[in-house]
Amino acid sequence: MNKITIKAPYLLFLGRETEPTYAKTGAGIAQWRPELCAGQLNLERGTVDLGLPKMSIQDAKAAGVKSLIIGTASVGGAIPDDWLDILEEAALAGLDIVAGVHSRLSDSPRLVAAAKTSGSTLVDVRVPPKILPVGTGKKRSGMRLLTVGTDCALGKKYTALAIERDMKKRGLNADFRASGQTGIMIAGQGLPIDSVVADFISGAAELLSPDNTPDHWDIVEGQGGLYHPGYSGVSIGLLVGSQPDAFVVCTAAGRTHIEGWPDFELPSIDAVIERTISIGQQVNPNICCVGISANTSSLSEEESAAYLKGLSDKYQLPAVDPIRGSTDAIIDYMNLTFATKEAS
Amino acid sequence: MNKITIKAPYLLFLGRETEPTYAKTGAGIAQWRPELCAGQLNLERGTVDLGLPKMSIQDAKAAGVKSLIIGTASVGGAIPDDWLDILEEAALAGLDIVAGVHSRLSDSPRLVAAAKTSGSTLVDVRVPPKILPVGTGKKRSGMRLLTVGTDCALGKKYTALAIERDMKKRGLNADFRASGQTGIMIAGQGLPIDSVVADFISGAAELLSPDNTPDHWDIVEGQGGLYHPGYSGVSIGLLVGSQPDAFVVCTAAGRTHIEGWPDFELPSIDAVIERTISIGQQVNPNICCVGISANTSSLSEEESAAYLKGLSDKYQLPAVDPIRGSTDAIIDYMNLTFATKEAS
After folding, report:
1. Pick the CATH number of A143-343 from 3.30.70.1350, 1.20.970.10, 3.40.50.300, 3.40.50.720
2. CATH architecture, domain defined by A4-124
3. Partner of A17 for a Cys bridge, out of A72, A155, A295, B185, CB 3.0 to 4.6 A?
4. Burial of B139 (0-12, 13-18, 19+ CB in 10 A)
5. How far is A22 from chain B (nearest CA, A)?
6. Distance (Å, whole) CA B4 – CA A343
7. Is residue B108 within 8 Å of residue B19, measured between CB atoms?
8. Tens digits of per-residue pLDDT, B279-314?
């Protein structure tokens, strides 16, 4: 097994959470993969509602649920003691337990014993497979789009998911490829690129978007930022392994510095485009930018429209906010770009 | 402890090796750190001679040896059963056992038990410390030189060691900083950058060359290659974390393609210089190239001299083969460059 995989359908576990912000993982799964979510389970006093049927472990078992996914963060990242009874019950009932919390599921002797008894699996999406290859750089069949960013935490995952959704709406053949823990939980598979051993970053990225049919697009979730003082190695290894044909630059309106690194100015979109092309050409001479995706949540509706138009005019590329609208303009541009390329 | 450290003096263990090529690690330690090597130990039929006094474990113990270093490779990378008796004896005698072989020392119950009994340590130089920071990008005091390469395996470690040696000969304040397993064994400390988790590459590189006095140079061993289809993430993370003031490009005469990746042409020296500066400027605006180090072992003496002169003329930089000569021309150039900068 060289990828993490999560068996559907899911029961989303929300603990005693009362703040929707802390249940972002669960909300993301319910938003992007509603067809895989059978129900939700809140502990006593937990009030977060994802709009799914409320289920006990026994209900879930009867409904054919295969995995309980911990869809909420916990204080300090550990598994609270008062979650253990219900997680143990789920594991004993044969459900896989899936988590991306900081402490590992396999560090809990009770969960390990319960899973062993029933034959279920503890899936820690932060732990990459033990054996990964070194990147080969060999050209793979099929097409790939990577979301890159001026920084972390500004919509690379959301943009990739939105492009997948909007391509599928048009009947195009596309799959979101998750490179981070929340993305893996949403996609039900993937590889946590930032957690692999350094020598295997590109190799893991190659596994993430394997050979495919010529009409197929992998929409790869980016990580970090090419200019990031902490994470640029991850971003560049992912770029080289993904060998994208197309990329979208993600940014956030109003952000001036790398978040958490106040001494570092946000790189310009030009700089990100130039470096992505320069490095990406090592493994794909045809790499090109097909759009800009901006998080404009800090702007009014009118300001956002003006900001996106400004970006689009300046770069002569489609510029969208996928939370406010669709990514259709990017897909139109891709269709033109790659149809033209194929015809030439 | 956020760095691997090896206690001197050393006993170099050479097993039953008869081929000097397979005892490269031991030979490297004896060549670069003779003052730390108390003796060598060959098993029966082993003939490799590093010119050190032959010692039993008891001799070594009596001579105050602190660490037994496995200085030879083994077939398949495991620890052969017929090494175990002597390694166990060494651990029981209180010597640390140091290895970079593929299988971990801590996987041997006999060695674990022996080390526990005596209180000695099993040091696996391939295993990074468990807790590493994310790179901050903050400017550190002191000066840094990084060796970068057009490819792997063409002299980045050797060049860094030679520059350290030649700077020290002039009374300059310099330390080799090891980023790979053989380098760590030679230096007695360091971090195996290619083995850290991807998110921490730059952070580990920052630990490797900490704040120092203004006149001090860290000579950092490079890894991989900026254009390498497998390892560029490692190389770039190391570059960003090292924030070098100066770098030397290492290459090999006659190499046309990335070794083991026949579809990838070797990048030009210009391309390596340009990308190293472009990325390095994120964390050090003054980064500059101070020379070229070429492995010319495939050339005759005359051809080598002509090749180096050609490089030097083309790039207007000193070009040396540190195995054939010294790195003095690079150090002269550094003195001029940084003296000028300091005066300006």
Report:
1. 3.40.50.300
2. 3-Layer(aba) Sandwich (3.40)
3. A72
4. exposed
5. 23
6. 57
7. no
8. 999 999 999 999 999 999 999 999 999 999 999 999
Helix, strand, coil: what percent of chain B each, to 5? Answer: 40, 20, 40
For the segment A44-66, what is each residue's pLDDT rounded down to a tens digit? 999 999 999 999 999 999 999 99
Distance CA A118, CA A90 (A): 10
**A259: contact with B, CB 8 A cutoff:** no
Strand residue runs (E) in A34-160? 37-41, 67-70, 96-99, 122-124, 143-149
Q: Report the C-alpha gap between B283 and B202 in whole angstroms.
A: 11
Domain boundaries, chain A: 4-124, 143-343
Residue to substitute from B131, B139, B197, B261, interface A, most A β-carbons within 10 A: B197
Q: A-chain residues within 8 Å CB-CB of B227?
A: 282
Provide ipTM, 2 decimals. 0.93
Bridge partner residues of A248 (DSSP): A147, A291
Quickly count: other Cβ atoms within 10 Å of residue B229's Cβ. 24
pTM of the model: 0.95
CA atoms within 13 A on the CB side of A60: 33
- B4-124 against B143-343: fold identical: yes
Q: Which residue of A has its CA nearest to B259?
A: A136
DSSP one-letter string for A114-138:
HHHHHT--EEETTS--S--PPP---
B177 φ, ψ (degrees, to nearest 5): -120, 115
CB contact under 8 A, A232 and B136: no
